[in-house]
Amino acid sequence: MLPALLAAGDGLSQSSYGLRFSSHEVVQEKRTALNLTSTGPLCFKKKGEIAFDFNLLPYKESYFGYILRIVADNDENVDLVYNQQDRSINFLIGENFSKKFYIDSAALFNKWTRIAVSIDPASREAAVAVEGRQVARGHLQTGNPACIKVLFGTNAFEGFQTTDIPPMNIRDIVVKEGDAIRYNWPLSEVAGDTATDRQEGKTAAVKNPVWINPRHNHWRLAQTWEVNGYPAVAFDRNTEVLYLVTGDTLYHLSFKNGQAAGTALSQRLENLLPGNQAVFDPYNNKLYSFYADERKAGTYDAANRRWDVAYTPGGLTVFWQANKFFSRSDSSLYILCGYGQMQYKNLVQRYRPSAASWDTVSVSGERLVPRYLAAVGATTNGDTAYILGGYGSNSGSQVINPRHQYDLMAFYVKDHSFHKLYQLKEPGVQFAFANSLVPDPDGQHYYALTFPDNQFHTSLQLIRGSLSEPVYTQLADEIPYSFHDIRSFADLYFCSTSELLTAVTMHTNSDQRTTVNVYTLEFPGAAITTAVSARKQISRWYIWASVISLALVIFIIYYYRFRRKPSLPATQATAPPAPVIATPEPPAEAPGQQADIHCFGTFEVLDKDGQDLTRSFTPLLKELFLLIAIHTIRTGKGISSDKLYATLWPDKSSKEAQNNRSVNMVKLKAILDKLAPCTFVKEADRWSLQYDATRIRIDLAVFQELLAQPRPLSKTGIKQMLAILRRGAFLPDAGYGWLEDIQSGISADVLDVLTGTAPQFKAAPELLIEMADGIFLVDPVSEEALLLKCSSLVTLGRHSLAKALFNKFTKEYLHLYGEEFPHPFTDFSGEK
């Protein structure tokens, strides 16, 4: 089961920090050491205590070793040693005292146990307590005060060296003298080889640290395979093994011990076709390969290392990205959704392994909109499956208004009925889903991977959502993903025992060579954004930023209008600027109100007085600014250092790239500060731009704000968007490779908004003409724009202009497609 604490609110959980000790699985010099006394011994005049939380890592081969070694000033040692043979912890004092105690294995491996070792110089006694209960004590030869060295894990202290340590986690070390806390090391660091005490800032030295915090926030690449052909992945949740099915080998990766291997097939799995999938039946412990187009499925025979199925060579699948789940109630595999031959699917197919039969299930309840790129996950027994989001159309046809779906549907196996649970608010940046959704057994939450599907170089983002309310939270960092819908696949699994989330990405290149990457994230992940709610139009962050922005506006008006001062005081100028927030109502473009940065049309930067600063941007400064600003505005997360360096300085070392970035950011900030104070912020290794939106207007930020408004847009919203588009397409003269997918995405957004909004303005032909021009800007041969503009011109009595527009369109069509436009003018003029 998922940890119950995941159902709690956002933020870092209690188990997502500490120090992990590398143990027998690595060579001696790579094992972990923590020295609390690297800057000097701890000396106690009163009774002293070192308390800490402790647990062991599961599924390791060897556990023997020193948890803690204390060396007193008289060279007497006090040790806690884990004895693997009888699963006890030995409490040792020198060579004359030894007593063992036990901790329940369920707590030892799955929970944190509080252990405290005390040194009393007055009574010359050392003792150990577990969860506040003393379990052993013995005589210690020490002076008063008692001065000690405190060493966790390995140590190289002369005469007391040890490299035998158990694979363990330690956190929340508290040192007391009497009743007073002297030092507190939470061990919540994310990097570095020191730990800092919260009381006095005392540092402890760490060798070969494995900080737990990042492992809950950063996906780790656990395995990569490069294979021929079109493989498929399946996950056995019982043994926590991932299978990779290929034509000649069955690969597997155990998440319990991290071991990967491959088994050569005794007989090839013939014609493993694009779009094939694999699935593991957790109730009968069988691995299946299936291909929905041929309605075939085969079982893997582990004893004979072969499959009992062979596929027939054929055309491309019509079930790309289909979803699947097993149900215990009827021992059947269900396959639903998918895409192929320009058609989205809402078909529900069923395969019964016991009878080796396929059928199409008749469904009831609410209609599932045909789709693919959805996330599907079933409850533990497979009696209910949840279908989240996707991309498709009401008709199922790719030609007729396809769009992203953000509903959560439930499919009940008992009566084969669909029911809509809720609709998520449509996001500012559209996204699709990896293949699987992971429901929490508590019935309250789910986990899924989202990604923008309008670009090839994209990334997967983990979300945690509610199964009862339209809210979700983004967790951890992103996973790189190369997306092409007929060459890519991504999936998500949960290892309940190891408490790992596992993400798999696959991409097949033009040489039919597939790269498979497996990532893991220790659970629970830390929330990096606030929940997104369909019932809220703006987030709490937006509200606070808006309040700050409004306060700044009032402050400026007060000073300019009433105090008559020419500029803000120095203290105001140095105040932190408001975060990136686009104002919903763009101000007039007259000088003296706001500085302007134009990304639509020719790139242009104007200060508040209308002075052109564009020439101050060298080509490098311009690209650096656009990289950070666009990724900040479009995603709200900025751009990673790695991506920044790879784009601008691909031939430089990391250090050289860092130096170049620092120098050029200083130059860039000096230019931008002429507009208004701004800053570049680095958080979680991602760079973003922060600026005061009341003083600097970036048209892309206004555009993104308009996209986030409820659809269809109001007349005011449409006019604001058209005012932005009058300057031209998005950065049409920028020849950056990294920008192409973003330009395509913005063009798609323009088409989506304008075509979706046009029907409500049938009585406003002048506005429809402007909207058609906006569509033509991103799609010169849009038949919908031609119909809008021609019919509107005819309505206004401008017949000759309509005919001229049609003739120009047909010439453009012939130029682009090499064939005549197949429709007459009367089809677009509204005249018969």
Task: Provide structural commentary.
The protein is an alpha+beta fold. The chain is 21% helix and 35% strand. It is built from 14 helices and 53 strands. The strands form eleven sheets. Strands 2, 3, 5, 6, 7, 8, 12, 15 and 16 form a nine-stranded antiparallel sheet that branches. Strands 1, 4, 9, 10, 11, 13, 14 and 17 form an eight-stranded antiparallel sheet that branches. Strands 33, 34, 35, 36, 37 and 38 form a six-stranded mixed sheet that branches. It is globular.
Describe this structure in a few short sentences:
With 832 residues, this protein is α+β, with helices and mostly antiparallel strands.
Strand runs, count: 53
Cα-atom radius of gyration: 32 Å
Largest sheet properties: 9 strands, antiparallel
Q: Count the DSSP helices.
A: 14
N- to C-terminal distance: 67 Å
| Structural class label | alpha+beta
Fill in the keyword field for this structure.
nine-stranded antiparallel beta sheet; eight-stranded antiparallel beta sheet; alpha+beta; 832 residues
